[in-house]
């Protein structure tokens, strides 16, 4: 077992923050897991579970044991008349897995193309984009109970999914580590073309709308609007789209008739956080070494040398301005360690 001390995490978080793990271990298989769980001195440490680092704001020093999930593998485990059941290890890169499913002819994940991070992080965050969330096709999640090292499988219902949230961020936080995810991908699929510019992009690029065409359109749109973390540090969309009552949304429309909103459910609306931030004047604006991206106001970027304090100072300033102008609260997506 290779246990690293003072391990540099700068390349393992997409914001590119300089961070150092007090103790670091790369977890690749069940044998590694058993070795960790048998070591009482390590089990007593405060464990931090790290995937792709795309939804994290790291401090300069991460105390305790940072466990980097790096198990690999994906396969078709069964099928019936209605669907394919595909299992994937938590350490696989999410977009690589999505593109693999499409190559096999399995539809359902195309709208989630190019979302950064690992497969294991997908159910924790209930990742979503362009009208689709991971909960729509997720069948089961197999986790490691960090109290005793046993495996436990959660059904879709038991995951308690909601908007960018799940059991694993709430009641199960700190206890369960995602090990693999089983997806149910329908043989009779429905393409989701309603959000953003997907339909327009598909029609511009292809003669027929197919899952692969939708995936390519999503990738093209995301690449045109979102910065590459390898070029400029970022954690993708930094704020959740706030959900407000219909009355609140109607009041806002009186002052802001071009307000961008979508029905969230029968009684509420989801407001486009990017639109709010843009209208508040933060698109392309900097505060020290961080700022809101010039092409997409929802993305907070690290222009170089930023710290966690810099990130949260900007996030709080943007949130305060949105609250003052619109009377709407913004909630950050990334987790602060």
The average pLDDT score comes to: 96
Relative strand content: 25-35%
> What oligomeric state best describes the polypeptide chains here?
single chain
- Reported by name, the CATH topology of the largest domain is Uridine Diphospho-n-acetylenolpyruvylglucosamine Reductase, domain 3
Helix content: 25-40%
**Rg, please?**
20 Å
CATH architecture of the largest domain: 2-Layer Sandwich
Biggest pleated sheet: 5 strands, antiparallel
Total helical segments: 9
Separation of termini? 25 Å
How many separate domains make up the residues? 3
Shape: globular
Classify the secondary structure makeup into a structural class. Answer: alpha+beta
- CATH top level assignment of the largest domain: Alpha Beta
Spans with pLDDT under 50 lasting ≥5 residues?
Answer: none
Counted beta strands = 20
Describe the structure.
The protein is of the alpha+beta class and 337 residues long. It folds into three domains: 4-69, Uridine Diphospho-n-acetylenolpyruvylglucosamine Reductase, domain 2, CATH 3.30.43; 74-186, Uridine Diphospho-n-acetylenolpyruvylglucosamine Reductase, domain 3 (2-Layer Sandwich), CATH 3.30.465; 233-336, UDP-N-acetylenolpyruvoylglucosamine reductase, C-terminal domain (Uridine Diphospho-n-acetylenolpyruvylglucosamine Reductase, domain 1, Alpha-Beta Complex). It contains nine helices and 20 strands. It has helices at residues 30-38, 40-43, 94-103, 121-125, 198-205, 211-225, 246-255, 273-279, 308-326; strands at residues 4-8, 20-27, 47-50, 56-57, 61-69, 74-79, 83-89, 128-129, 132-133, 138-145, 151-155, 176-186, 233-237, 243-245, 261-263, 268-271, 286-287, 290-292, 299-302, 335-336. A five-stranded antiparallel sheet has the order 6-7-12-10-11. The protein has a four-stranded mixed sheet with strand order 1-2-5-3. Strands 13-19-18-17 form a four-stranded antiparallel sheet, covered by helices on one side. Strand 10 and strand 11 form a beta hairpin.
